[in-house]
Amino acid sequence: MDQIVVATSKKRNINYSEILGFFSFKEYSIEEAVDTQEGQTLIIDTLSKERAIELATEYRRRYQGLPILILTDYNQIFTSGDISRIEGTGQIRIHSVTADNGDKIVELLNTLINPEYASEVFKLSIIVPLYNEEERFEHVLNFAEKLNLFLEESYRNSKIYFINDGSADSTGELAEKLVKKLSESSSYISDFGFLEVRELEKNTRKAGTYIEGLKSVHSNIIVIVDGDDSFYVEDIAKIVNILREGYYDLVAGTKDLTAENRPPVRRLLSFIKRTLTKPLLPKGIYDAQTGLKGMRGEAARYILPHLSVERELAIDLEMLYICKKLKFRAMQLPVRCIDRDGSHVDIVRDSLRYLKSIASILCKQDQALEVRE
């Protein structure tokens, strides 16, 4: 199998034989590339953005983890929405071609083919809060295995932090066993580490896991996701690809339009909360409750000092409110979600607590948040 497939319209007259002399590659026209089954990495070189998206999607249907490099021009803008249309879990890099930049193409290819040996190491951290998951730990195990496969395929310099939020059952012990199992079966070694369990002494109702996680990591991109296998790895990959291209500082998932097995009462409460919290959210964000978010590491460093463990389940709302005050670029991305049985949320009691937290956060509006330099 050829390592690289180059799908090109030949309109840019790029000499791939010269640029890719040290790689094993095969060059096809755009039409021929649709039918080929070859390639471990794909370069798409066409003046048509729509054609590039179509071809990338077609390839990803065969191999979800396929790394893709899309070449563009300065006047051909790929948006975050364009990237989110491409399915799969592999890395996507967008590069605007200029004269004599073959070295940059080679550099980007190296980050896709051998991410652990790239000239600029890209680090990804995933924070997974856990609380009293003993009875449904099978979901945690399934999700961890999916994350493990995703990271080994696409992001070697990565780390998963399982943060136990003061569980009263054996969640901590089970998480330690899970980490040991995955570490022993892992095929790579990284100085950055791979898996880690952090323990909180008492339950903070989610807020402490966010704060502990953000304090612990030093990465280019940080993803926070519920650990009960309710979200799809493909959507995590989209968030990472969007953030990596620099479109936004924070991407917040929303499950309101896609959640499966969601009771009508929870849908109604979600609508009420969205209505009440809208004034606190950045432009373009309407859902603060979905348990999947990603942010750039630099943004996390500005957000962290303003987070309060007292916010409990409203920590997501506080995080987004801080983003608004700091004028961060934020995006809402529809994600797929399955509402799992065994939720620890008491609909009535926690809704009242949430309302109280909204009032507390609103009080911050008169407090000056430090503006980015």
TrEMBL record:
Q: Name one GO molecular function term.
A: transferase activity
In its UniProt record, which GO terms are filed under biological process?
Answer: protein N-linked glycosylation
Chain coiled-coil ranges: none
Domain Glycosyltransferase 2-like stretches: 125-300
Keywords, comma-separated and alphabetical? Transferase
Q: Does the keyword Transferase apply?
A: yes
SUPFAM superfamilies annotated for this entry?
Nucleotide-diphospho-sugar transferases (SSF53448)
Q: What Gene3D superfamilies does this protein map onto?
A: Spore Coat Polysaccharide Biosynthesis Protein SpsA, Chain A
Q: Does the keyword Transcription apply?
A: no
Q: Which protein, by its recorded name, is this?
A: Glycosyl transferase
Q: Which organism is it from?
A: Propionigenium maris DSM 9537
